[in-house]
UniProtKB/TrEMBL annotation:
Lineage, uppermost ranks: Bacteria, Pseudomonadati, Pseudomonadota, Gammaproteobacteria, Alteromonadales
Record domain EAL: where: 586-841
The name this protein goes by in its record: EAL domain-containing protein
An annotated GO BP: regulation of DNA-templated transcription
SUPFAM superfamilies per the UniProt record, alphabetical: EAL domain-like, Nucleotide cyclase, PYP-like sensor domain (PAS domain)
Source taxon at top rank: Bacteria
Cofactor: Mg(2+)
PAS domain residues: 280-353
Organism the protein comes from: Alteromonas genovensis
Length: 845
């Protein structure tokens, strides 16, 4: 058998694919089966059968060794089991109510016996005759081995159950059935053939406090996953009132309780028997509570008594080798960062007689030299009288998760184009420098670097060339700074450089050297040569600076002065520069912004957002803002919004945009063609009470037909700035009938946490993740994780910055709901976009 890429698809497999498309019950069957193999059998031609690759790999064969013939598997199945299989197939074909589901033995290619759970579903023609069989194989060999190994223990436990008067019960919530062991029935004084249900089981408890306690305990177990252990009064079927100890533990799967199980003991006549059984019971209870991926138990001396297969795999020691060895000999844990040995947690637990948890940066060194990142806890096993019996250690392999977390952290703190720190991380690294200088110990200086003539390359050769130029200059800067210097890309063609252990004289010499290095650099593109240059603003970091923002503004101001003085030079910040330049620069900008608001000069643009999984006759938009520059060009928000926020003008701009959009929609003749229109809200706005007092009447007077289309967007940075204000603002919008969206999702370290705290309808994945989705597996995994978590919360997912058809197709496959980007639609004036909607309606008419 060859792979699907190198040969045509088997006809039965093709038929199965078509059936899955047309019959949801078949798809449901496949989805619910945990498959180690899949088969599809033509009952009209019994020798004709298709088996999946995993079918044979589970049995030790390469698919190329086997043919699609039923005789192939019949030759290696146990003869007795073959008889059972044939009999069950016949019964299932005759009556659909008879399930085809049995565990059978196959002979593995190695000669060993493999236990397989074989399940199947008969597919019938219009007359009800079975013509095909679809089935699955699941390897249950390990379960069977454990079952056989536990048979002797179970016999011993059953004898103990009878002797100690302890019964067992098991509640299956998916099937709504409850099972009582024989001893449980005897305690209730009911016949052996008695079949209880949850309601009748609860009604045996004495009416009043006991029944109320057990009812609440069961509900808490089912809904919250809380186990219980209660001593209660119970009235038997013969009317006798007895005291019982009822213990229950819930079992969860797929975020819901699927099963509860426990023990049931008559404690009326003998407390002495209860004490005799405490050791065994406590061992069972703690083990049930502690079982995880890997498990090691020890005696009171710290010697290993048992470890499960996963613990064998991670430590490199088998149970036979490790049993009775000191736990410290098989368990070698170190700190991931420092690579230093950590104390043995089992020994610590036994000494302290309390639960011990290892730090999050713990690494387990396996016997074979492999390293595993783990989370770990060790609990003591004690009797009610606090007699120590031993310990149980549970640990979980988090190597991949930890690596992914490190990658995500790196992306959250670094610029994807240059690899330098981003602005947010750079600011956080500047903070300690201000503190250090308050203590007079260390000299620092900040250099603000702005490339000269970068715009000429970008405008002449395009953004691709501009990106390549930034990469080359970044390498140049990195090669000419010290290892302890910190460099970041602050945005566009601007860089920040923190010079450590540098007084003003040495910092100036270093900055001038960088100027000279960039001046000597030549950028080659399409047979053209460009000379760049750099202007640098230099600020010595002293006690004078009270905040990072103030420090960066001063460096920016000095850089501006360097450009104004002729470019390609270093300008050292002086106090008088701060007072003069910054005041005039920002005052001019704030005046222009106020004038644009008062004169209604701002222009609303819009970019369309497209659904990915079904064609739509309605359109989705995001409103974007543009400011005129007085020369028939538009200024983008990145240039004027920071100034607006600094001068508290953001609430005025946001109100202008919201009211303008509502007014525009009032006039729109084809409002029904617009499904959604997103409006961005700044972080300053959400806490501004004057804005909120103006906004509420505006929204209350807006018709529902318009409000239902509005979605207010906030960035992660906005939420991070003020959690309390953000929650209050989202709650206010929800009460007014306005939906909310979280923009730039994924850029923060607590992105997933926001989905729990905020009732939002939509997230927009940051373009840095979408841009490399085809080339970077971490970005692809991140986008899929965002989409999967959002779906659990019923939140729509939008991918931003989509720039190719291949990206679009991959986003569809991942399950993203909407896409937005220049590849799909370049922003246009809002009026033009709405006019195109009307033109579509007219052309369709």
């Amino acid at each position: 058998m060859t792979t699907q890429n190198s040969r045509s698809i088997h006809p039965l497999r093709r038929e199965l694919l078509e059936l899955i498309k047309s019959d949801e019950s078949i798809l449901s069957f496949v989805e619910k089966s945990s498959l180690d193999g899949l088969w599809f059998w033509d009952l009209t031609r019994p020798e004709h059968e298709w088996m999946s690759d995993n079918f044979w790999k589970t049995l030790g064969y390469e698919p190329t060794e086997k043919q699609h013939l039923s005789s192939e598997w019949q030759d290696i199945i146990h003869p007795d089991d073959l008889v059972v299989v044939k009999k069950n197939i016949q019964k299932h074909c005759e009556s659909p109510s008879h399930p085809f589901d049995q565990v059978v033995r196959y002979t593995h290619k190695s000669g060993q016996t493999v236990w397989i759970r074989c399940r199947g579903l008969a597919l019938r023609d219009k007359n009800g005759k079975a013509i095909r069989m679809l089935g699955s194989h699941v390897d249950v060999t390990e379960i069977k081995k454990q079952t056989i190994a536990l048979q002797k223990r179970n016999q011993t436990f059953e004898e103990l159950e009878n002797t100690a008067n302890i019964g067992i019960w098991d509640l299956d919530l998916e099937k709504n059935t409850i099972w009582w062991s024989r001893q449980t029935k005897r305690i209730h004084e009911v016949p052996d053939d008695y079949k209880p249900n949850l309601a009748t089981a609860i009604n045996f408890y004495k009416e009043g406090e006991s029944r109320s306690i057990i009812t609440n305990a069961v509900e808490q177990g089912i809904h919250c996953g809380i186990p219980y252990d209660e001593e209660l009064e119970l009235v038997t079927a013969k009317g006798r009132t007895i005291w019982v100890r009822a213990i229950g533990k819930p079992e969860w799967a797929n975020n819901k309780c699927v099963r509860m199980f426990g023990v049931f003991q008559d404690i009326t006549s003998s407390k002495r028997l209860k004490m005799q059984l405490t050791k065994q019971h406590e061992l069972l209870r703690v083990t049930l509570q502690s079982i995880g991926d890997a498990l090691i138990t020890s005696d009171t001396n710290g010697n290993v008594t048992w470890l499960n297969p996963i613990a064998e795999q991670l430590t490199g020691w088998s149970l036979e080798e490790a049993e009775s060895m000191a736990a410290s000999d098989i368990l070698n844990v170190i700190n991931e960062q420092t690579q230093t040995d950590l104390p043995n947690p089992i020994i610590q637990c036994l000494q302290k007689k309390r639960t011990v948890e290892l730090e999050h940066s713990t690494t387990l060194l396996s016997r074979d030299g492999a390293k595993y990142g783990i989370t770990c806890s060790v609990s003591p096993i004690c009797t009610e009288s606090e007699e120590l019996l031993g310990s149980v250690m549970v640990f979980h392999d988090v190597t991949e998760e930890r690596q992914a977390g490190m990658e995500m952290k790196h992306r959250a703190t670094h610029d994807p184009l240059t690899g330098f720190y981003n602005r947010s991380e750079f600011e956080s690294r500047l903070n300690p420098c201000l503190g250090d200088n308050r203590g007079v110990l260390t000299n620092y200086a900040l250099a603000y670097i702005d490339l000269d003539k970068f715009k000429a390359v970008n405008d002449t050769c395009g953004h691709h060339a501009g990106d390549e130029l930034l990469k080359q200059v970044s390498r140049l800067l990195k090669d000419n700074i010290a290892k302890n210097d910190v460099i970041a890309r602050l945005g566009g063609d601007e860089f920040g450089l923190l010079l450590a252990d540098q007084d003003e004289e040495h910092a100036l010499a270093k900055a001038q050297n960088l100027c000279q290095v960039v001046d000597n650099f030549r950028f080659y593109h399409d047979n053209r040569i460009f000379r760049i240059g750099a202007s640098i603003g230099l600020v010595p970091i002293t006690r004078r600076w009270s905040s990072v923002a103030e420090l960066i503004n001063a460096a920016d101001s000095a850089c501006y002065s360097a450009k104004k003085a002729g470019r390609n030079r270093v300008f050292v910040w002086k106090e008088e520069e701060k007072r003069g330049h910054q005041r005039s620069l920002e005052s001019n900008w704030s005046s222009r912004i106020r004038h644009a608001i008062d004169s209604e000069l701002f222009e609303l643009f819009a970019q369309r957002v497209f659904p990915l999984h079904s064609p739509s006759k309605v359109i989705f938009l995001e409103v974007l803002l543009r400011m005129p520059d007085g020369e028939s060009n538009w200024i983008l928000p990145d240039s004027f919004l920071p100034i607006a926020e600094r001068y508290s003008l953001s609430p005025h701009i946001d109100y202008y945009v919201i009211s303008s959009v509502i007014s525009t929609l009032h006039r729109c003749q084809h409002l029904h063609r617009i499904a959604q229109i997103n409006i961005n809200i700044s972080g300053q706005t959400i806490a501004n009470q004057a804005f909120i007092k103006k906004l509420l009447p505006l929204l209350n007077n807006t018709p529902y037909s318009i409000k239902e289309k509005l979605v207010f967007e906030m960035t992660e940075a906005t939420i991070t700035r003020s959690m309390v204000d953000s929650v209050a603002f989202v709650t206010l919008l929800r009460s007014a009938g306005i939906k909310t969206a979280l923009d730039d999702f994924g850029t923060g370290a607590s992105s997933f946490a926001y989905l729990k705290k905020y009732q939002i309808e939509q997230i927009k994945i940051d373009g840095n993740f979408v841009g490399n989705i085809l080339n970077d597996q971490v970005d692809e995994i991140a986008v899929k994780a965002f989409a999967d978590i959002a779906k659990l919360r019923n939140i729509e997912v939008v991918a931003k910055s989509v720039n190719s058809a291949k990206q679009l197709q991959r986003l569809k496959e991942i399950g993203v709901d909407f896409a937005q980007g220049y590849y799909l639609h370049k922003p246009q004036a809002l009026g033009i976009v709405l006019d195109s909607v009307e033109e579509e309606v007219i052309s369709n008419a």
